Structures are given as structure tokens and as C-alpha cells.
Amino acid sequence: MTVTPQRTSAALSAPPKADAKVIAWVQEMADLTRPNRVVWCDGSEAELHGLMNKLVGTGTAIKLDPKKRPDSYLVRSDPSDVARVESRTFICSEREEDAGPTNNWAEPARMRRTLTDLFRGSMEGRTMYVVPFSMGPVGSPMARLGVQVTDSPYVVASMRTMTRMGDAALAQIGPDTAWVPAAHTVGAPLARGQADVAWPCNETKYICHFPEDREIWSYGSAYGGNAILPKKAFALRIASVQARDEGWLAEHMLLLKVTNPRGRVFHVAAAFPSACGKTNFAMLAPTLPDWKVETIGDDIAWIAPGPDGRLRAINPEAGFFGVAPGTGLSTNRTAVETMWGNTVFTNVALTDDGDVWWEGLTDEAPAHLTDWTGASWTPDSGRKAAHPNARFTVAAAQCPTISDDWEDPAGVVLDAIIFGGRRATNVPLVAQSRSWEHGVFMGATVSSEQTAAAEGTVGELRRDPFAMLPFCGYHMADYWQHWLDVGKAVTDAGATPPAIFQVNWFRKDADGRFLWPGFGENIRVLDWILGRLEGRADGVDSPVGILPAPWAINLDGAGVTPDQWAELLRVDPRSHLVESDDAARYLETFGAKVPEAIRRELHTLRDRLRGKLANGSLAA
Ligand SMILES: Nc1nc2c(ncn2[C@@H]2O[C@H](COP(=O)(O)OP(=O)(O)OP(=O)(O)O)[C@@H](O)[C@H]2O)c(=O)[nH]1
Ligand SMILES: O=C([O-])CC(=O)C(=O)O
Ligand SMILES: [Mn+2]
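The joint structure predicted for all components is written out below.
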């Protein structure tokens, strides 16, 4: 006897105003994945409570003590599903060369067959949630729309915080609206009567992007960066392609508003690789008097020329998906205050009185904890209580320093752009680029030590251009050309592009200690950066860019010794020449597509370094 699986009707449960094409796609996905039922998410508070109750019921989430942290939960993932899987992330462009050497490429038709086979029946025994979402304030001309289907209630709850989702987003989609379909399954169908596990996932994982079709498929993981598809998959990988085609920029950048002691307001964007300080910088608590720093976004910025030609930026997200370890009262009090309630924690430790803890939250660890794997833990267990990539998910609106213009549908005018990385040696604390082209060169050659935000060896040095290495949806060298083109378009429109800077908070001394106090003290660097824009801060030329002149950065009370300061800004021509050899080899991997302006900047850098070396030996 053959049993025809019951057809789950997407149309039956669809809201009355749902667009026909959306319904048809959801139906197609339901026919393929065969869930027990289809639920269209409305984005309401009641819906969120229902999802969290369900997660508590399946043992996925633990409700924290409401007296300590109201409406907050701890979720423990499967120990194998804790970070983005870059080796399983694919750009399936029609032509391999459009993905470029930094992406895994797969032939689209073949990948579609693979995915179709994997998705067939993958939601059996589960509920398919339909989550319409808007990236950017609903109705903003800079916002973009999408619809994700997923069988993970944890992912739906995360999307409720990270995006504007539900009815309001669905209402934006009409017959002629562009929207991105994003299909997600944990890949763990349940047979009739089979008991579920707390964190269903699959050993096999695929995170696939079809840039020409503007489509996303994700299989096997429920970890945020792999499964909350509006975030990295859409707002960076797919959006970077849209941005290239439409003349704007989709960037891995935080956004902040700074008011200086004289009341002048600036907006700044900064790109640092994953786990290199974006959230911390976005919530900077200034240690210098009379400065005000407010938060607009902590991870992604969409940047487009406005009517006056100047670049304007929005934060397309609605929440923070932040790294917990290292986030504490002494480093980022603002983040800690943001998480007072309504927060989902993933892979942190549980205290005996029903609250959460992680390394760095407080100086001293509690005497006893349940660690992120659910095992008993004491300070002398000899292992971390929280996973190094443990995360908190919380609404941006809850941030005490959220800026009043963070949801401005027109975006904020950008005054400066900062690139950074995690470098123990060589790279100075701050340098200003001499031009837009030089700034693009700085961004293109950023290198950083690998962190726990992706699988791989922590500490290994890798080039991470524009902090976009894992997130650029097309050929990286074409992306650099696009940046050059955008700068030129701004200039051609008679406007001034933002000034570009490079920073490094992470330089270490011979004993392996950070030379720069960082965190709230980073305001001293911002003071200089903005002072450069106002013409009130002095700089000295160097081969790698304009460095702060002696005394140009206020170090009063920073606790930095003159020797440390000298080391923070030291540019050793010999080691920079070695670095530039490496940069040259790196650029070679992109072949003929490397823009002429980038080659020219490399050439200039090497000439200047050699000149410096020659002068140095003359002087000696
Ligand atoms: N030494 C030093 N460490 C910092 C500084 N800012 C951030 N960190 C540390 O860097 C780690 C990651 O910081 P985050 O701000 O969460 O990084 P992120 O770039 O937002 O990370 P993603 O969410 O993965 O994109 C934490 O352990 C921080 O404590 C700084 O100025 N100095
Ligand atoms: O995407 C993630 O998993 C978290 C994140 O912000 C990053 O890695 O940059
Ligand atoms: Mn990030």
C-alpha cells in the first residue's frame, strides 16, 4: 500500500492579505518539506510567548528567574552547532568567477538538486513557520523585504528580536514587490511517535545563496549566523549583490552617533571582523568628559547616496546578536544594562539561583555554575563555563544608549568610516587614509587574528577585507571596484565622501598584554578622528597613513606610559615591507580583477616604506 502524504495547505492558514506569489512559494516549500502544519507568524507578543513556552516544553529553553531577569531564557545548542560554518557556506552564482576566490562556489542547478533532495520531507513531524520580515524600518525607502520559512521555533523567536517581522512586513509585499525567499530547516524530521531532542540539527550543513535569483537555502543548523537568514545571509551576502547592482553598499559595520563637547554631531560607521569589538564600540561609554556616544547599530549597515549625494546609512536590523564572553560591567556596561530582561541567551552558563553568567561578566566567577553543556562547573574545573561564541539576543530598543535617529527611514549622513582588525603586532592604534582610494586599499588589506565566531583555528592570522571575507556575496575584487565607484559617484555629485580611518585596539607588548586600554577609552581615538574632520587635530604623515602627532591624542588619565604610546604608534618599515609582500601575494590571488587604484596604492606604500628604510639607514 502506498500512503500519499497529506498535503499541508499553506493557503488555508495564510492571512487574508498575503500576496499570491508568497502563498505559492510557501505552498511549494510545504509540499517539499511536508510539515504537520503551517503557521504564518504575525509578530505579536502573544505569539512570542507561545514560542518561548513551546521551547521550554521541549527542553530547548530554560526560563530564568523572572525576579532576576524577566521574560528571559537560556538556550543550550547541540555542542556541534555553535558558530557559523564557513566551509559549508556557498555562493551559487551562475558563473564561478562571480563568486571569486574567497567564496565556496557551487553550480546552482546542481546545488538546487542537492538541496531539494535534502529538504524533501525534512519538516515531517514539525511545524513550518512562515516569517515575513523587513530589513530596515518598515516602509523606509532603504528597507528590503523577505520571507523565511523555518521549522525552528528558536529561529522564529530570534527573528522577532532581530528583524521587523510578521503582519507589518507581509503588508509591504504586493504583486510587484521584490522580496527574498529564504528557506531554512534544521534537517531533523520526526517519525510518528519519535521523541524530539532539545536542539535538533543535522551533521550535514549547507548555507546556500543564489545571488542572481536573490534566494537563500539553509540546511542542518539552528545557530544564529547560519539560520537567522535575514542577518548574514540576506543583509550581507544577498544585499551586497543587490547593492552592487543598484549603487549602494551593504556592510558588516556598526553605526554610531557622536556628540562632541561643543555640541557638534557626527555619524560614524566601523567595520571590524566578527568578535573584534563592533558591539563594544557601538555602545562605547566615553571616559572623556562631555562626550556623548549613542548607538544606531552594532553589526550591519546599509549605506546609500542620499538626494544631496552624501552617503547615508541605516541599521537594517532591529536587535543585537552579541558575543557574551568579555561583555561585562567593566567593559560594556551598556550591553549588560540592555539585557535586563526580554533576552535569549545561547550557550552561556546558568547560576544556581536561575540567572546567567559568562567569562568577563563579573571579575570573579560564582563558586558553582551549570556550564553551557549542562554539566556542573566550579572555577577550578579547568574549562570555560560559557562557550567562547555564546550569544545574547535582545531588542535594540532596549539599549539605554540607543540614538533617537536609529530608525530614521532616510538614514543618517556618514562623516567617517573606520576599518579595524585584531592585530597583536605591527598595525598602529589609528591611521587616517590620504584619500578615498587609499581608504579602500586600507579596507581591502585588513588582516585579523581568527576568533571563535566561526569554526577554524583561533588566533591564526587571515586577511579579512572590509570585515566582509565570510559575507561578500560576489567577487571580492569587484567589490573593491564597487567601493571605488561609490566614492567617485559621491564626488561627482559634488559631495564629500566620508573620511576613512584604520584602527587596532589589540596591539600587545612583549609580555602579551594589551598596550591600549580600549573600550570606553577608545573615545580618545574618536576624538582625534573627528578632530581631523574639523581641522583641529594634528597628524603626521607616515607610509601607512596619517598618524596622530605627538600630544594630538589626549592621554590624560588613560594610564598609558610614554613607552607604550610610542609602541602603539610605531610603524616599523622593515616589518611593514614584509606585510606588504604578503599583501601583494594576497592581491595576486584575485588576478586581473584587482582595481588599478588598489595596485597603485600598494606600489605607493612600498615606495614609501623603502624610502623610509633608506633614510633610516642613512641616519644611523
Ligand atoms: N582589548 C580590547 N578588547 C575588546 C575591545 N572591544 C571589544 N573587545 C573584546 O572583543 C570581543 C568581541 O567584541 P564584540 O564587541 O562582541 O565583537 P563584534 O565585532 O560585535 O562581534 P560579532 O557579533 O561576532 O560581529 C569581546 O571579548 C570584547 O571584550 C577593546 O577596545 N579592547
Ligand atoms: O553571524 C554570526 O554568527 C554572528 C555575527 O555577528 C558574526 O559572526 O559576525
Ligand atoms: Mn557580526
